[in-house]
Design brief:
Helices cover 36% and strands 16% of the residues. The chain is of the alpha/beta class. The protein has two domains: 188 residues, Thiamin diphosphate (ThDP)-binding fold, Pyr/PP domains (Rossmann fold, 3-Layer(aba) Sandwich), CATH 3.40.50.970; 131 residues, Rossmann fold (3-Layer(aba) Sandwich).
Length: 352
């Protein structure tokens, strides 16, 4: 099975081969490195940009205006904060032009904690991104979804931001990408560049097939009647594990919703689950003040006040300026399995 980052690479190859991607670019995106996380190794349209995030966004807009279909990368989402004004402009162009001008930009960037990146490589970006009207925002939690969401982002006429959870980039999926070989070692030999002597290396791409995950459609990962857990990205597998443990220890079964899309998001899936369970826990790792989960919490209360059995809960990251390099600081700054399990058990224990 492919890792999440291998899935992204294969999706980009499929995009440049079959879907009209004209440029894949960013800092160290081209040869020989192929991206700091190797997401762009071996791609024929990949090239290196200057170390200038604002220039990357501006260039992507220019390529799109000229009829191209670019995929741009900001090496870490932490360095996207100095591009907010340009992201705002990119998001309003189709609206300002009454839909007459497409803006088919894909902006991918690693987001979140999990690699002990300290202050400048551990931020989460989805709450900021959710405020950029005109953009579609997605965040996969597994390799197959990463492949399908990337293809959907490529063919979309609107700007789409693909947030890649840093901690999951090397995690293998549980389902095959359509067309990938079942042998993991064979896949590595085919598409992973050697650590040394890669100047003349060329990938041998498997016969990949199209697979689209619709933007705005959540995935119901586990089902149950006792509580609803809503998450995405790095914290989604932790929520699944927490749901498994409460089922084993107390027989409680939970819906676990992988949102997959931050905007537009699957309100129908959320609403249906909340009406069924009456108990809601939202989990993500962005800082807790003005967190995207707070918007979901407000909407759940507005629409389902009389369906709720107990108060809905949000578990998010600590509202601190950054995440420290020390592993204890990182572990205690953002939700981990023990804190998710505690919050879920408290939700289940609270009397109606």
């Amino acid at each position: 099975m492919a890792t999440l980052v291998q899935a992204v690479r294969m999706a980009l190859h499929y995009g440049e081969t079959y879907l009209g991607v004209t440029d894949i670019f960013g800092e160290d995106v081209g040869p020989p490195l192929g991206g700091v996380f190797t997401a762009t190794q071996g791609l024929k349209t990949a090239w290196n940009s200057p170390l200038d995030e604002r220039g990357i966004i501006g260039t992507a807009m220019g390529i799109a205006y000229a009829g191209g279909r670019p995929v741009a990368e900001i090496q870490f989402c932490d360095y996207g904060f100095n591009t907010i004004d340009l992201l705002k402009v990119a998001g309003n162009q189709r609206w300002a032009g009454a839909g007459n001008y497409e803006m088919p930009i894909v902006l991918m960037t690693p987001s979140g904690s999990g690699i002990r990146g300290s202050l400048y490589h551990s931020h989460s970006f989805e709450s900021w991104a959710s405020r950029l009207a005109g953009w579609k925002i997605v965040m996969p939690s597994n390799a197959l979804d990463a492949y399908g969401l990337m293809l959907s982002a490529i063919v979309d006429p609107n700007p789409v931001m693909v947030l890649l959870p840093k901690a999951l980039l090397r995690v293998r999926g549980e389902q095959l990408i359509p067309g990938e070989p079942e042998d993991q070692q064979l896949l590595r030999e085919m598409i992973d560049a050697p650590v040394k002597n890669r100047e003349n290396w060329q990938p041998r791409w498997p016969p990949l097939k199209e697979y689209y995950v619709p933007i705005g459609r959540a995935s119901l990962v586990r089902t149950g009647d006792d509580a609803t857990i809503i998450s995405y990205g790095r914290t989604l597998p932790l929520c699944v594990e927490a749901a498994k443990r409460v089922e084993e220890t107390r027989g409680a079964k939970c819906d676990v919703i992988d949102l997959r899309s931050i905007f537009p998001y699957d309100w129908k899936a959320i609403s249906k689950s909340v009406q069924k369970t009456g108990r809601v826990l939202i989990v993500n790792e962005d800082t807790e003040v003005t967190n995207f989960g707070e918007h979901l919490l407000r909407r759940v209360i507005d629409h389902h006040f009389y369906d709720l059995l107990v108060r809905p809960r949000l578990l998010a990251g600590q509202h601190v300026p950054g995440i420290g390099l020390n592993q204890n600081y990182e572990q205690n700054t953002v939700p981990q399995l023990p804190s998710i399990l505690r919050e879920l058990e408290a939700l289940l224990d609270e009397p109606a």
